[in-house]
Amino acid sequence: MLSVDNLTINERVKTPVSFLVENGEIASLVGPTGSGKTSVLMAIAQLLQYDGSIKLDELNLKNVDKKWLARHVGFVLDDVERQFVAHKVADEVAFTLENLSWDRGSIKERIVEVLRKFNADYLMWRPLSTLSSGEKVRVALASAMVADPDILLIDNVFSRIDPPTSKEFMEYMKKIVLNGKIIVTASYEEMRDGKNIHMGIIKEPLTVDVLPRKVGDVIVELDGIQYGYRKEEPLLNDVSFKIKRSEIIALLGRNGSGKSTLSKIMTGLIRPWGGVLKIRGRIAYVPEDPNLLFVKSTPYEDIAFSIKISKSAMNVEDLLRDLDILQYANHPIYSLSRGLKKVVSIAISLALKPDILIIDEPTVGLDNYYKSLISLILSKLASMGVTLMFITHDIDFALRLADRFLVLGNGRIRYDGEPTRSVEL
């Protein structure tokens, strides 16, 4: 049994947290963006200093060594990139076993076995930097489970994976708790099957009405775009579509289908192998990992820097207030939750006054209130003539906001049409 008693963590978790999770049970920490859910999981994994008590049965986890933790506690951060230590997938999954002094032959067998469980064995020799967000989650889960731990901590990673994969992982979680494992997750919504531990109250979502607007001329045009990370395996093959001014496009597809790669091509970060790309206007890009945009120490400084670059008349405090992050204006930017970092990264891009804005996974790490707020802001932008394209696995968000769905699969656009819940990914 995992017991957490009167847990507080400096400025991150001020209200004491207490709960019990029995062997063979799944529990979810449920609370708003920035409520400290990640910090509680990090404390259980002994990655943060804390006040209070955390025990597994009668064992105080403050008193155990790192080797014991590596064997008995598996952890998947919401920022999975932060936990990677190796260059290639196989080396990443092997890392824990190497530190537990497993012999080389047993390590090789276990790597294959655990990657196969997560349908990731085909990634074994791939560099981690070439993986999609969802593929990275598969590898992180494999790494967390490679030593068959007693406790598995999962920090809100399901918003980063496509619905079929999410369902697959949930079934896996249900299987492993049958063997007496303990799973603690962080989420913004209550679980139907499992224990829910509440950490704060999520604000009611705002009412979002997509504002009327006039769609203009073609502002983005792709014709026959081709690209891959290996010559023998093209990821994108003959991708073609057009986007008009003020359109709102949702780019959908399975994990690893090339959505983020396509967005990087559109923003000039990657040069395609072939095809024609035409962009008519100033483009801004919010990557899936918000940390990549930060160049200063606080949200206020980063947004002010973007305003300076764009030479706009925007006001930093107004932008912070519009996105409901004014209270975090002078916080150390890397101390914020992933969701709040995402909101800050969107604010940074808005400050650049783009004609075209591409956002990779705008809702990852956000509760329903912040999702509705982002929808409202983006709707206003589109009504002012800004063209929007966002990559997402959040079908509800896409249906609420998008004019048009583009579905990427097998290297091509498989669907280009009206938003529908029944679209096949």
Task: Describe the model.
- By secondary structure, this protein is α/β, with parallel strands linked by helices.
- It is built from twelve helices and 18 strands.
- The strands form four sheets. A six-stranded mixed beta sheet has the order 14-15-16-12-17-18, sandwiched between helices.
- Strand 17 and strand 18 form a beta hairpin.
- The longest helix is centred in the last third of the chain and has 16 residues.
- It is globular.
State the end-to-end CA separation. Answer: 40 Å
Helix content: 25-40%
Strand content: 15-25%
**Poorly predicted segments:** none
Order of helices and strands: EEEHEEHEHHHEHEEEEEHEEHHHEHEHEE
State the total count of DSSP E strands: 18
Rg, rounded, reads: 22 Å
Average pLDDT value?
Answer: 94
List the helices and strands and how they pair.
Layout: E1 2-9, E2 13-21, E3 26-30, H1 37-44, E4 51-56, E5 59-60, H2 66-72, E6 73-76, H3 89-99, H4 104-117, H5 133-145, E7 151-155, H6 163-177, E8 182-187, E9 195-198, E10 218-227, E11 236-244, E12 248-253, H7 259-266, E13 274-279, E14 283-286, H8 299-310, H9 316-322, H10 338-350, E15 356-360, H11 368-383, E16 387-391, H12 395-401, E17 404-409, E18 412-417
Parallel strand pairs: 3-8, 3-9, 6-7, 7-8, 12-16, 12-17, 14-15, 15-16
Antiparallel strand pairs: 1-2, 1-4, 4-5, 10-11, 10-13, 17-18
Helix pairs in contact: 3-4, 3-5, 4-5, 8-9, 8-10
